[in-house]
Amino acid sequence: MPYSRRRARERARDRGQVAIEYLGFLPILVLVGMAVVQLGLIAYTAQQAGTAARAGARSASLGESAGAACAAAVSSWLADRTDCPSAGGGDEVTVTATVHIPSIVPGWDFGDATRTATMPLDH
Question: Where exactly are the transmembrane stretches of this chain (predicted)?
Fold first, then answer.
């Protein structure tokens, strides 16, 4: 068999092997991608909880409702997952915002992101 024909056949076989290897590696790439997106969601939710706590504490320090300010401060798709109880004592008010972390993997629960903010009461 001439060298060029044999070389062409080997190249075609290599091309098929690369496709099979890629298909075997694809699930790993998908899992890594999902993990990156989930970590981003966790960080974003924690940031939103901090924003909600500060907004709720600011609102409660002015004598207004902390819960409404908390829900308004977070993204609309996280607002129904947000809880912001406030507690006053002395000359300050403390608001703890709890936002449930969404999961892109069905059946996995990553819990809640909780942040606290304290503001002086406005007299």
Answer: 20-44
Nearest to 116 by CA among 52, 44, 41: 52
By the 10 Å C-beta count (0-12 exposed, 13-18 middle, 19+ buried), 82 is classed as buried
Per residue in 14-61, pLDDT tens? 666 777 877 888 899 999 999 999 999 999 999 999 999 999 999 999
Measure the CA–CA gap between 41 and 78, rounded to whole angstroms: 11
pTM exceeds cut of 0.85: no
pLDDT band at 66 (very low <50, low <70, confident <90, very high): confident
The dihedrals phi and psi of 25, each to the nearest 5 degrees, come to: -85, -20
